[in-house]
Amino acid sequence: MITALAGGVGAAKLILGLINILPKDDITVIVNTGDDQLNYYGLYVCPDIDIIMYTIAGIVDEKKGWGIKNDTFNCLEMIDTYGLKTWFNLGDKDLATHIYRTLLHKQGKKLHEITSILSKKLEINVRILPMTNQFVPTFIKTKRGLLHFEEYLIKNRATDKVIDVIYKDIDKAKPAPGVIESIQSSKGIIICPSNPIVSIGPIIRIKDIKDAIRNKKSIAISPIVGDKPIKGPADKLMIGTGYEVSALGVARIYQDFIKNFIIDHQDKKYMKSIQKLGLKVHLFDTIMNNIDKKINLARFTIEKLFSQ
């Protein structure tokens, strides 16, 4: 069994590759919940969990990388008619997920239980776990004040200069049931090519998770290729938190708890510097722009993970 730490589109792409080469019930995915909105027009929204669920279920909108393919936005249009803000683009089918999640939450279900129920309804055999059941939103510190990450990313289109990243109440959060047990019982741990600051960052700040990974075979894949992110504002977030925007910068974030690191061929120049951090470095084509490349990277990752 392997366990993957994940968040966002890059992670979803790798997970899709993994489920094409491994039995689905041999995979556990621990997902970032720092992006969650607990009360968006009364709804409980979990963007990263939903991206992973929709991808594995085969219903994700691949062009956008999120949401449900062929979705409509009639509800959003009506909300706009009423003069309410509609910056968070949730499709009609997507809204059904949030409505059901909110209903289950109001019935007293915990997030890990809700995620399990949703996964079963979508006939997903991969085990998906939220990093924690507590609400631990990620905020971006800017000149205009603190912005929830989704507000910074979507509403403001990541245009604000990042001064710092705040993981609210993260020090009080406990791993969701099954998280530590999954890591401990896994043969290996994969850190997906997700944003290291706002996708993987919150997960490894949850109590005991990083320590559990240190004792396992582990491998991470850099989401930075050619000194820029493949997707999203990782560059701005890394600069705002004091890291250089490069594969080396990502390696410095992960160096104290992983053993292997995959970088793209374009970043070969960083190989020796990353090796000096104590990591074993592997070169590969990490840009997953079709299903074959997703499978190839997944296969290479598994190969290097277990060749330790």
Task: Report on this structure.
The protein has 308 residues and is α/β, with parallel strands linked by helices. Helix 4 (92-106) packs across helix 5. The protein folds into three domains: 34-126, CofD-like domain (Helicase, Ruva Protein, domain 3), CATH 1.10.8.240; 138-170, no CATH class; 177-306, CofD-like domains (Rossmann fold, 3-Layer(aba) Sandwich). The longest helix is centred in the N-terminal third of the chain and has 15 residues, at 92-106. Strand 11 (224-225) and strand 12 form a beta hairpin. Strands 5-2-1-9-10-13-14 form a seven-stranded parallel β-sheet, sandwiched between helices. A three-stranded antiparallel β-sheet has the order 7-6-8. Strands 3-4 form a two-stranded antiparallel sheet. It is built from 13 helices and 14 strands. The mean pLDDT is 96.
Percent of residues in helical segments? 25-40%
CATH homologous superfamily identity of the largest domain? CofD-like domains
Secondary-structure element pattern, one letter each:
EHEEEHHHHEEEHEHEHHEEEHHEHEH
CATH topology of the largest domain: Rossmann fold
Main β-sheet, spatial strand arrangement: 5-2-1-9-10-13-14
The figure for the number of domains is 3
What is the average per-residue confidence, as pLDDT, rounded to a whole number?
96
Strand content: 15-25%
| CATH C-level category of the largest domain | Alpha Beta
CA-based shape:
globular
Radius of gyration: 18 Å
Outline the low-pLDDT stretches: none
CATH architecture assignment name of the largest domain:
3-Layer(aba) Sandwich
- Quaternary structure annotation: single chain
How many DSSP helices? 13
- Category by helix and strand content: alpha/beta
Major pleated sheet: 7 strands, parallel
Distance between the termini: 16 Å
Number of E strands: 14
